[in-house]
Amino acid sequence: MVQQRRAELAGAAHVELVSGVVQLRPEDAMVEAMLRGWRAQQAARGLRDDDTIGPRERLIRRFLAFTNEYPVVVVAGAHG
To answer: What average pLDDT does this structure show over 60-75?
Structure first.
């Protein structure tokens, strides 16, 4: 039987978040993990931090501050 190794993809959730750890502010932890993962994915594509990644992340952070909301808000009982 051949065992396949799982490739560690840049920005994968299992790399960014530690399983079994209870976060004091889970929404903030998720947003930070999403941004770290996004940053890692862009860096893996060869994009430069000072030219591309940094300005994009600052834009997202400004948008989050402006909306004062998390990217994903789950409401119990809501159906689309």
So the answer is: 86
